[in-house]
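Try this one yourself first.
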């Protein structure tokens, strides 16, 4: 059944356009062209973001920062082993999944660290990626308050993930 979802959506869109007496083919072409133009505006920001994450991980800067901040995480009840995940998650989802997989491989998925990492991955967002994509697409330049609120929400997500893992 799931194999038929996309053709079904296309059929419904075509039927809707025909009902309104519009050219469905031209509408699909126009939508595709607009999608490609949006992709062209977003790709440079995504490439820069992924390159920066790769450089920070390869240089060891993320590990050093994670070790330096681990006492702060311990103060808030967040396992210090998840410090790198907390630092990477707002930047890159794929890097965060890699860090989460490493934590689960090292400590086990049923350990406190593994459960905390899994909950963190499911309850937080890739903030910088989301802001760069959506604000870039909308042409919004000033993200000062959005970034602060989103990072605060991420911290609350990390904190609550740790509390939830400890509680369960």
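Now uncover the answer:
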């Amino acid at each position: 059944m799931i194999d038929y979802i996309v053709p079904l959506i296309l059929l419904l869109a075509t039927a809707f356009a025909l009902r309104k007496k519009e050219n469905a083919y031209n509408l699909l072409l126009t939508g595709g062209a607009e999608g490609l133009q949006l992709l062209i505006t977003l790709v440079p920001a995504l490439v820069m973001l992924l390159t920066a994450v790769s450089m920070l991980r390869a240089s060891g800067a993320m590990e050093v920062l994670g070790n330096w901040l681990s006492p702060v995480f311990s103060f808030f009840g967040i396992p210090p082993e998840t410090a790198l995940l907390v630092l990477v998650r707002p930047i890159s989802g794929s890097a965060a999944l890699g860090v989460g997989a490493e934590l689960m491989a090292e400590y086990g998925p049923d350990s406190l660290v593994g459960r905390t990492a899994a909950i963190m991955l499911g309850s937080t967002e890739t903030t910088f990626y989301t802001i760069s994509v959506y604000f870039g697409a909308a042409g919004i330049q000033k993200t000062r308050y959005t970034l602060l609120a989103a990072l605060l929400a991420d911290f609350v997500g990390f904190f609550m993930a740790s509390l939830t893992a400890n509680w369960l």
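Discussion: Helices lie at 5-19, 24-59, 61-75, 83-88, 93-107, 112-123, 127-138, 144-167. The two ends are 37 Å apart (CA to CA).
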